[in-house]
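subagent[fold] <- orchestrator: predict structure for attached chain, return tokens only, no commentary.
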Amino acid sequence: MLTATFICCFTYVISQTKPVIEPKTQDTITKPTIIPLPTDSVFTDKGLKLKVYKKNAHASYYADRFNGKKTADGSRFSNSKYTAAHKKLPFGTRVKVTNEANGKFVIVKITDRGPFVKTREIDLSKRAFMEITKSKGAGAMKVTIETIIE
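subagent[fold] -> orchestrator:
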């Protein structure tokens, strides 16, 4: 008795297609580039309800030696975040701090008490301070402080 065995092999070819990018012409409308903002700060003041807290206030920034130390609200301080220390504002209050010399501003969260110098009103984290300062070598500046009403 003869037994015939047929073995069939099927090969599946999976093609990977890449999207075709057509060259731009002058007639095409380009979409604006969206730049993601850091999650710990807000760079726009549109739609916010602001109340002026103090104009012509003196601002400074934290020294690097405070990195990792506990703040008055119990969180750990980081000079790379957008936070600030104020003598009287409640913890968690968000404030808009505007440099009066150049109009740049940053929004920070109050997490600590201070500054403990009579002539200064607010201590910013180094990142927030450098974001709005006119001169990177400066240690203090005059600012307007506005609280954000939520």
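orchestrator: received. Logging for downstream: The chain has one helix and six strands. The domain at 49-149 is CATH 2.40.40.10 (Barwin-like endoglucanases).
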